[in-house]
Specification:
By secondary structure, this protein is an alpha/beta fold. It folds into two domains: 42 residues, no CATH class; 127 residues, Rossmann fold, CATH 3.40.50. Strands 4-3-5-6-7 form a five-stranded parallel beta sheet, sandwiched between helices. α3 links the parallel β5 and β6. α2 runs parallel beside α3. The longest helix is centred in the middle third of the chain and has 13 residues. It is globular and about 50 Å long.
Length: 186
Amino acid sequence: MNHLTCPDSSHSLATSTLVLPASAPLAENALVQPTGIAIPPADLPRATPPLAPILVADDDEDDVYFIQRMIKKSGVRNPVKVFDDGSEVVNYLGGARLDTAGGRERCPRLLFLDLKMAGLGGLGFLEWARQQKGISPLTIVVLSNAADPETVSRALALGAHRYLVKYPSQQTMTTIVRGVYPFTFA
């Protein structure tokens, strides 16, 4: 017989032991106690809250690949969500699923934004974001090939926190990512 021990949902500190036949399949992450002794609640691994995603809005597959690679090399464990244009980010940020409680996805705090995308471009997204009250904790970093002073000034005036010409150094990306997510290192 296998014993599967899990937190009892009706009591915060109690556990329930489920006795399964030896032939019963178990999930990979099941806590099996072959001796039949329940694992005390204090010894159970605690479920970690979901990490806030890092957003990338860029319609170029190669750029997305390099940005994701640089994020991964920065050492954080946060998931990366990729969008092809600014309207997808608007729809995502406007969704009711963004919450820090109730098992919902954590609110993102970092967006790497390209300016030239099909659909709603980066400047259009910045104009939208500027009008939103609940978006203020989102750090927006523009990553663009455009380096002319007028475009840079406009993006910063619309609320971008940083403007970087593709591709910044790994050290710059690591500093930005770890500055926004300082406690999620792998």
